[in-house]
Design goal:
This protein is 21% helix and 28% strand. It has 3 helices and 7 strands, in the order ββββαβββαα. Strands 4-1-6-5 form a 4-stranded mixed beta sheet, with helices on both faces. Strands 3-2-7 form a 3-stranded antiparallel beta sheet.
């Protein structure tokens, strides 16, 4: 658990328990691109409590006790998609503080086919590669606007200007 200064409190939190005001748990997300510049979309399991069946651009979840944001996102990528990613492959995008969680966003580029990924069925229903334009549309269909973070992530990975993103 963290405090409002993003410092560890030394206390732990169990999923489902209400946090005290000023306490935060750590959440991590990764945007995954392939070397062609496509972004990985995943359809959330229909068994999920939050947004079942929704297509999303993010892979991630809550950190476990003792994990850093980097180790948590590496674990989540392995658990959910059987991807082996190193800390050196991760590129930090941003950190956000919400009502009771601190969220770290990373981007990673991989050279993997969908056939080499193994979905964690309890978390992920389906996966597919999408162009940025397709990802924008899916995001908007879900009443999100993830355009900015997708553009920021692709720029960080590929050092391209915004005019090339809509393919």
């Amino acid at each position: 658990m963290y405090d409002e200064k993003n410092e560890l409190t030394g206390r732990t939190h169990h999923r489902g328990e209400k946090l005290n005001v000023g306490d935060y748990h750590l959440v991590v997300n990764a945007l995954i691109f392939n070397i062609q510049g496509n972004v990985l979309l995943q359809q959330r399991s229909f068994q999920k409590i939050t947004d079942p069946g929704m297509w999303t651009i993010a892979t991630g979840g809550s950190a476990l006790t003792g994990e850093t944001s980097e180790s948590a996102v590496i674990r989540e990528l392995h658990e959910e998609l059987n991807l082996i990613v190193t800390k050196n492959q991760l590129q930090f995008l941003k950190k956000c503080r919400h009502v009771d969680w601190i969220e770290y966003w990373y981007v990673v580029c991989i050279d993997e086919s969908l056939d080499n990924m193994t979905r964690q069925i309890s978390e992920v229903e389906a996966i597919k590669w999408a162009t940025l334009s397709e990802a924008f549309q899916i995001s908007r269909n879900n009443d999100f606007n993830d355009d900015h973070i997708l553009i920021q992530a692709k720029t960080k990975l590929f050092n391209t200007d915004n005019g090339q993103f809509y393919t």
